[in-house]
Write a structure and sequence with these properties.
Elements lengths: L3 E6 L2 E6 L5 H18 L8 E4 L4 H11 L5 E6 L4 E7 L9 E2 L1
Parallel strand pairs: 2-3, 3-4
Antiparallel strand pairs: 1-2, 4-5, 5-6
């Protein structure tokens, strides 16, 4: 079992912690899962990727680095706003800080 779970479901990257571990292992597991998903064709890139779930700061950096290369924009769910916040963008259709349902 992995210390970090990543699944693409209904166009949203669902993330969360798995088996208890420290961030060094969680970062390695998250990177390995992203690589597996890219190699299998599960993550093919696109205009926008929404991410939803709990994350540590080191894992957020891993996801940002890997996903910013294949998606035009990346938005993360903010439960206080009940919306996704665009956090990375190379796509002129999305601006940093845009809120998306």
């Amino acid at each position: 079992m992995s210390s970090y779970k990543i699944e693409l479901k209904d166009g949203i990257l669902r993330i969360g912690f798995g088996e208890p571990a420290q961030n060094d292992q969680i970062v390695r597991d998250a990177a390995a899962r992203l690589e597996e998903m890219t190699t299998s064709g599960e993550l093919v890139g696109g205009q926008l990727l929404k991410i939803n779930g709990p994350i540590s700061i080191p894992v957020a950096f891993v996801l940002a680095h890997k996903l910013a290369h294949i998606y035009g924009a990346v938005a993360f769910y903010d439960p206080k706003l009940a919306k996704y916040v665009v956090s990375i963008t190379h796509n002129p259709a999305y601006k940093l800080g845009d809120l998306i349902d």
